[in-house]
Amino acid sequence: MTYGDPARGATTKADGAYLEMRNQILQGKLKPGSRVDYVQLSGALGVSITPLREALRRLEADHLVVRNAHRDVVVAALTREEAADLVTVRRELDLLAARLAA
Question: Which pTM value belongs to this model?
Answer without folding.
Answer: 0.68
